[in-house]
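Exam revision sheet. Question 4 asks you to relate a sequence to its structure. Input first:
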Amino acid sequence: MKNLTLPTTIEKTDLLPFDLFKVADNETASTLVPIKNLEASPAMINLLLRKITWRGYAYEDVDGIRKIGYNLTDGVNGNGLTEQESYSKWIEVFKDTERRFKEVFVLDSLSQSQYDGMLSLYFLTGDWTTVGSEIRKFNLFDYVKNRQWDYVATAMVNSGINRTMRQLEAKVIMLADYGIQKDRSLIRRQGIQDIASKYPSRLIDDKSRAQAEYVYYELTNRFLPHMAESRQRILSSQLNK
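Answer key, structure tokens:
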């Protein structure tokens, strides 16, 4: 059987019709700003946080790597991370990555939405010059250098890996469309509900369960249902000193 070979370049006939959709904010999408003056917009940070989601306990990602909070490795062996603690650690990692992005990016000016979309790709994959996987990978360098954003966005959508996030980044770049914002207080509440729904049997191990117990009690001042009395006494002692 022949191996299926997928095209790895975008032709004009491949371009997706982004022009059929309304641009959410023309200034954000079109006004060029020196990259040194740009920072990730609050809307882009919110998009990333609501897609990553907060988990106050350790879990394993798709690659089997132990993570906690907002997809962090720092803190996996501790008591657990509240949403605020997770955000504080995450934003530090994000801003360090943003500084590196500015150092390696090929253009000296971008619109806010172009900057946000490319920064998101770099933050989540470690590379802004390519998108895709071994099966199908597009080289974005020339498209970006030539400001062919419709080619960049089409490549993102067609890359086939982490498709949902790449589609969102493409919409940000072309339409300045960041989706429906979600306040961090709602992310926090949903994370607390997640702990309650997964405790105890759907957490990966005893350490993860202990972290869930700790974070849930710290944020709600209540014990998780079915929690052992011995653990209740320990937590009460730890957090009510």
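Marking note for examiners. Residues 46 and 183 are 8 Å apart (CA to CA).
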